[in-house]
Design a protein that fits this description.
Elements lengths: L7 E6 L2 H12 L3 E5 L4 H11 L7 H7 L2 E5 L2 H14 L7 E4 L10 H4 L4 E7 L8 H6 L3 E5 L5 H10 L3 E4 L5 H28 L5 H20 L6 H12 L1
Parallel strand pairs: 1-2, 1-3, 3-4, 4-5, 6-7
Antiparallel strand pairs: 5-6
Helix pairs in contact: 8-9
């Protein structure tokens, strides 16, 4: 990291979240120094977003980066961590950031043993895979995980992207992951189904009308509860399932 606090960032992997995070940190003043080549099916979208960022071999990219974004999910993240660890190219003091919802911070343990600083950043919003995503980050929330001494670094990165940091420890990882998955997928599936039903019956303006209803319903719950305890949402979901 230079005297201004700006970092050289390398993007490894092909998840779309990685592209958005790299763009957002680049807009905040950091330098995206390189990226690995994406698979053919994602190449067009990545090229459109990061066309000015050079494609580098993995080892060279990591050596040039002060912060490495691991843009992979689930088993792909595990394999990527194992690969980088086996090549012994990471050096003490580098930041390694993973973006996976369903993997705890300890997923980076093999890299941490070489002295790197592990972080997790997970934006709490569904990405649209369009140019709107950068603006959607502003004012949203980001789950952050890091060892206590470097937690301020993770929080600062979230804030630089315009996000409010929400600290998630490995102890509550299962609760975090299950709630985010349930809330995201269930709400999207239900709203999409409701819109289709109304449109099939010839109701005009179904989408904006139901969007307003959904927002008002969520806002009412949040006003009434103000904030949820660790298990509050899970209990509500379990109650719903029991009544179905």
């Amino acid at each position: 990291m230079n005297d201004t606090g700006r970092m050289g960032i390398g993007l490894v992997g092909d998840s779309y979240a990685g592209v958005v995070i790299a763009q957002a940190l680049g807009a905040a003043g950091h330098a995206v120094v390189g990226r690995t080549i994406p698979p053919e099916e994602r190449r067009e979208s990545v090229e459109a977003a990061l066309s000015a960022v050079p494609v580098l071999e993995l080892d060279a990219l990591i050596r040039r980066s002060e912060m490495v974004i691991l843009a992979a999910e689930a088993d792909a993240l595990d394999a990527l961590v194992e690969l980088i660890s086996s090549r012994q190219v990471a050096v003490s003091g580098q930041l390694f950031v993973h973006l996976a919802r369903d993997r705890p911070l300890s997923a980076l343990k093999a890299l941490s043993e070489s002295g790197v600083i592990p972080l997790r950043l997970y934006p709490l919003l569904p990405l649209t895979r369009t140019s709107l995503d950068l603006s959607l980050l502003r004012g949203g929330w980001c789950a952050v995980s890091a060892p206590a001494p470097v937690l301020p670094i993770a929080e600062a990165l979230a804030i630089e992207m315009g996000l409010e940091p929400l600290v998630i420890t490995d102890e509550i990882q299962d609760t975090f992951s299950s709630v985010v998955k349930e809330l995201t997928h269930s709400s999207m599936d239900f709203v999409s189904h409701a819109i289709n039903e109304w449109e099939d019956r010839g109701i005009d303006q179904a989408a904006p009308a139901l969007a307003a209803l959904a927002r008002a319903s969520v806002e009412r719950v949040l006003r009434e509860r103000n904030s949820f305890g660790e298990h509050g949402i899970l209990e509500a979901l379990e109650d719903r399932d029991a009544n179905d």
